[in-house]
Design a protein that fits this description.
InterPro entries: Kinase-like_dom_sf
Protein name: Aminoglycoside phosphotransferase domain-containing protein
Number of helices: 7
Order of helices and strands: HHEEEEHHHHH
Radius of gyration: 20 Å
Strand order of the largest sheet: 1-4
Low-confidence stretches: none
Distance between the termini: 37 Å
Number of strands: 4
Strand content: 5-15%
Organism: Staphylotrichum longicolle
Largest sheet: 2 strands, antiparallel
Structural class: mainly alpha
């Protein structure tokens, strides 16, 4: 069966949920932390299963080689400042095309989830640098178009700008980064897909899940709390 864009997002969140389920050390901080992570993961999976995260244009590929750790620190240049090699390929896999159509997070060199001042501050510092990056990219694209080496529809800058403006940047980022998933989901994705949460409480979102997932949550929480008390020993 050919892999679709939607199924790739399902696979990503399934891995996040498996990590939450089977990681015994430092998986949760409290019962409410566990519930919050459980609900976020299941809601993201619901969106993926319904095809609400997929870009229809790329739903059935192409699925290209993607290095999840690709950034300036992985590129070696020679004395003439030409690229000589790309290193650290261990986080490489086949991914939907639009993983590469969002703007690069490394324009600030530090990832959003590592930014000490928080996500809002990261965005405030990132956006001006993104605009500089996109203007430089547009200049290069215009030169390539003049050379006949690129078509107008092949502009990457247009797709990157759209990814950032629509928030799809955060969908892809959350899917790719299990350790950052929960903060990204509640900050940028929950209200985008499910509307305003009047109380702001994550438990209000539980009603959006199917009955079997709602009923399974407290048993899941009890198991994780027991593992926490045991100190993660096997």
């Amino acid at each position: 069966m050919p892999q679709t864009h939607a199924s790739k997002f399902e696979q990503e969140i399934d891995m996040h949920l498996q990590q939450l389920s089977f990681q015994r050390n430092n998986a949760i901080e409290s019962a409410d932390d566990c519930r919050e992570k459980y609900i976020a993961g299941q809601l993201f999976r619901k969106l993926a299963a319904e095809g609400r995260l997929a870009d229809p244009e790329f739903e059935r590929g192409p699925f290209k080689l993607w290095c999840d750790d690709f950034r300036p620190a992985n590129v070696l240049a020679d004395k003439d400042e030409k690229i000589a090699a790309v290193i650290k390929w261990e986080f490489t896999y086949s991914a939907p095309t639009d993983f590469s159509l969002g703007p690069p997070w490394w324009l600030l060199l530090q990832a959003p989830d590592d930014w000490r001042a928080g996500l809002d501050d990261w965005v405030a510092h990132y956006e001006p640098r993104l605009q500089i990056f996109l203007r430089a990219l547009e200049k290069k694209e215009e030169w390539l178009i003049e050379q006949g080496r690129l078509s107008e529809t092949g502009r990457l800058s247009t797709r990157m700008r759209k990814s950032w403006q629509t928030g799809h940047f955060w969908v892809v980022y959350a899917a790719r980064r299990s350790w950052a998933f929960d903060g990204i989901y509640w900050k940028f994705l929950d209200e985008r897909f499910f509307g305003k949460n009047e109380t702001g409480g994550f438990m209000d979102r539980l009603a959006l899940l199917p009955r079997e997932q709602r009923e399974a949550m407290e048993g899941f929480v009890a198991r994780k709390l027991k593992e926490k008390e045991e100190g993660g020993s096997f």
